[in-house]
Write a structure and sequence with these properties.
Layout lengths: L2 H4 L5 H28 L2 H27 L13 H31 L6 H29 L2 H29 L5 H28 L6 H12 L5 E11 L4 E9 L5 H18 L4 E8 L10
Parallel strand pairs: 2-3
Antiparallel strand pairs: 1-2
Helix pairs in contact: 2-3, 2-5, 3-4, 3-6, 4-6, 4-7, 5-6, 6-7, 8-9
């Protein structure tokens, strides 16, 4: 089966989502870093550094999404979908780097115990930035639902943590300025760092599952088993079921054991019915189906 027939067509929305994230992150990073330096808030500076890394990470995403949608070629017969998983893994590295920077800034604040200045300006800047990020996350969620992009999903997960950390930063700035609790600012920053580390771990785990060809989730496997079961008989059983996803497409390889008395025309009809059923159950799936006479040994049996 030709992979080009089953791979989803290029989706401009995926590239648009990544490019919008780059532009939004850039302006938010500049604003938060400037106000963070002016106010002396380590939490605001940390948030600005995080947004600056978002620019780089979203830029990598934009490139990866474009590369992943390239059609299969002579050297890459299964396409280039894993570029998105590589981008997600890169995202995880950037998130981890953000956490380290935040911890370093927080430790310096603990040592200096310096107060926050221009708190109202800091609150306004972080508040507007958080509102813009919420809008971006909602829009990205719709794009993920439409395209299933792993890279955009990774971007959305990262920006979701930015919303939570933004609320924490505003609380820290207010507490530090209104109640003179200088320690709230670095404590909240460390909390943000912990959240970033957890997000990075989740992103890395999902990306590695695609890069290492992990099997499809149990729900998808049940759909596959259900389609095969609906055609029994003449399908007497199956073996060698292998599945994986590259983040863009799903792949299914299975050997079907059919009644050996069927004619070639009848066997082809069984094959066509199963392919149709699997494509309806898993839209865009790439299939490799082998027909074996039931009861006879299979020289390529993978169990």
């Amino acid at each position: 089966m030709d992979l080009a027939e089953t791979r989803p067509p290029p989706t401009p929305a995926r590239n648009r989502a990544a490019l919008v994230a780059v532009v939004v992150s850039f302006f938010m990073a500049i604003a938060k870093l400037a106000v963070g330096v002016l106010s002396g808030s380590v939490a605001v500076i940390a948030s600005g550094l995080d947004s600056l890394l978002d620019v780089i990470a979203s830029g990598v995403n934009a490139w990866a999404i474009h590369a992943a949608e390239a059609p299969p070629d002579a050297e890459h017969r299964f396409g280039h979908g894993k570029f998105e998983s590589i981008a997600a893994l890169t995202q995880a590295a950037f998130v981890g780097g953000s956490a380290v920077l935040v911890c370093l800034e927080a430790s310096q604040r603990f040592a200096s115990q310096s107060p926050i200045h221009h708190a109202n300006l800091a609150l306004l800047t972080v508040g507007v930035s958080t509102a813009v990020t919420i809008a971006l996350v909602v829009w990205q969620a719709r794009e993920v639902a439409r395209t299933g992009s792993v890279a955009v999903a990774a971007d959305r997960a990262h920006y979701t943590t930015d919303v939570i950390s933004g609320a924490g930063v505003m609380a820290a700035v207010y507490a530090s300025s209104a109640f003179k609790l200088w320690w709230v600012d670095p404590v909240v920053s460390i909390g943000v760092a912990g959240m970033l580390l957890w997000t990075g771990f989740q992103l890395a785990r999902r990306a590695l599952s695609h890069l290492l060809d992990a099997a499809l989730p149990p729900a998808d496997l049940q759909l596959i088993e259900g389609v095969i079961a609906r055609h029994s008989p003449p399908i007497m059983g199956h073996h060698g079921l292998r599945t994986r996803s590259d983040g863009l497409s799903r792949f299914v390889d299975v050997h079907l054991e059919i009644d050996g008395s069927l004619t070639l025309h009848q066997a082809n009809r069984v094959y066509t019915d199963v392919v149709t059923g699997l494509r309806e159950a898993l839209p865009g799936v790439d299939l490799s189906i082998h027909l074996d006479p039931a009861g006879e040994p299979d020289p390529i049996d993978r169990k």
